[in-house]
Amino acid sequence: MTAFSLEPAQLARCAELRTLAAERLRPLAEKGEPGHVNRALVAELGTLGLLSRLFTSGALELCLMRESLAQACTEAETALALQGLGAHPVHAHGTAAQRARWIPRVSEGSAVAAFALSEPGAGSDAAALSLTAHPDGPSGWRLTGEKRWISNAPEADFYTVFARTTPGAGARGVTAFLVPADRPGLTGTGLDMLSPHPIGALALDAVPVSADDVLGDPGGGFRVAMDTLNLFRPSVGAFAVGMAQAALDATLDHTARRDAFGGKLKDLQSVAHQVAEMALRTEAARLLVYAAATAYDEGAADVPRRAAMAKLLATETAQYVVDRAVQLHGARALQRGHLLEHLYREVRAPRIYEGASEVQRGIIAKELYKNLEDR
After folding, report:
1. What span, in angstroms and rounded, lies between the C-alpha atoms of 160 and 100?
2. What pLDDT, in 10s, does the model give residues 42-75?
3. What is the tens place of the pLDDT at every residue in 141-179?
4. Contact criterion met (CB below 8 Å) for 116 and 161
5. What DSSP string describes 190-227?
6. Catalytic residue among 44, 119, 346, 354
7. What pTM value is reported for the model?
8. d(Cα 245, Cα 280) in Å, to the nearest integer?
9. Where do the coiled-coil regions begin and end (predicted)?
10. Does 75 qualify as catalytic in the annotation?
C-alpha cells in the first residue's frame, strides 16, 4: 500500500525537496526576522512551484511535502503550510471570482493568507465563537470582535474569518468570510510567542462584508473550518515527523562521534536504547500520518478519527524525540542557534494549534462511540 511503502518517485521527490530546502530556502529563512512574515521566503516557495502544489496535491502529497521541508528548514515548511491553511477555504469553498483574485497570487507567493478561527475565549471550542456578523442591509454584515493566535497576522493580505451569524445556534450559526486586509475597521498587532513564526491578534470594528465575501454557504462556516482542519491535521503530524526525524538524525550523528567513558556515546546501552525508542516512535507516527492522509485521499468515512490520531501521536512523539535529543546532546543543544534549540522552540506549538492534544483525544473517543452506536 502507498501509505506504508512509498513509490521510488515519491522517495526521490522527498529527497529533492530536502535538498531544495537546504540549498535554496534555508538561506532565505536565516535572513528573516523572527515573528514576522518572510516574504522573500514565501516568494521563493512560489518560484519553486511548491505553493501551487497546495491546490493540486492530495493529502498524502501534502504530508510528504511538509515532512521533507521540515527536516531541512522548518521556516519554509511553516510558510508553505500557512499559505495552504489560509487559502484552502478559498480554493475549496470560494466562488469563481474569489478564487481568480487570490489563488494565483497565493500560488506565486505574492499574497500571504491567514486562517482566522481562534478567539480569546474560543480556542479549542471553535463552536463557541463570539465574533459577530451583524446584518447590514439586504445582503451584508458588519464583523465586530477579536481574533487571537492567528498565524501570519497581522501581516497577511487576506484572512479567512469565521464569525457568528446566528446567535445561539452553536456550530450551525457560523459563517466563513474572505476578508482582505485593507478592509476598513480591521486592525492587528503581533504577539511575542515562543514559536518563531508570525502570530498575531486581530480587532474587527464593524468591518463591512457582503454576500460576495462569503465562503461556502451562510451558516456553513463550521463545515468549512472542519473540512480544512481534517485535511491539514495529518499534515501537522507530518511537520512533527519531519522535526522528529531531524532530531533523530542529529542524535545518531552526535552519539556516533562523541567520546565518552572510554568509547563512543552510542556504545552505552542506556544511550543506544533511547535512540532506538526515538526511532521506533518516529516511524510509528510517520506510518499513522501516511495512513490518515491516504484515508482522506480515498474519501474514507473515518477521516476525522484518523486525522485526530495522526496529529495527536505525531506531535506528542516529536515533543518526546526532540526532548530526548536535547538530553543526549547536553548543554550544546541549549545554545542559541543550535538545530535542537530551534527545534525545541518549534516543536511545542503543534501540540496546541489546529486542535490541542486533549481535543484530538475527545474527537477520537467521540468517533469510536459513534461507530458503536451505528452498529
Report:
1. 16
2. 999 999 999 999 999 999 999 999 999 999 999 9
3. 999 999 999 999 999 999 999 999 988 887 789 999 999
4. yes
5. E---SSSS-EEEEEEEEEEEEGGGEESSTT-HHHHHHH
6. 354
7. 0.92
8. 11
9. none
10. no
Q: Is the pLDDT of residue 110 over 70?
A: yes
Distance of CA 190 to the CA centre of its chain: 19
Residue 175: which domain range? 113-218
- Predicted local confidence at residue 4, as pLDDT: 63
- Only one residue has cell 542529529, namely 250
At residue 31, the pLDDT reads 95
Residue 374 phi/psi, 5-degree rounding, is -80, -10
Q: Decide which of 73, 91, 108 is a domain's last residue.
A: 108
Residue 375 exposure: Cα atoms within 13 Å on the Cβ side: 5
Q: How many helices (H) and strands (E) does the chain have?
A: 11, 10
Pair 39, 100 in one domain? yes
Number of domains in the chain: 3
**Identity of residue 122:** A
The span from the CA of 374 to the CA of 351, in Å, is 31
Q: Are residues 343 and 245 in the same domain?
A: yes
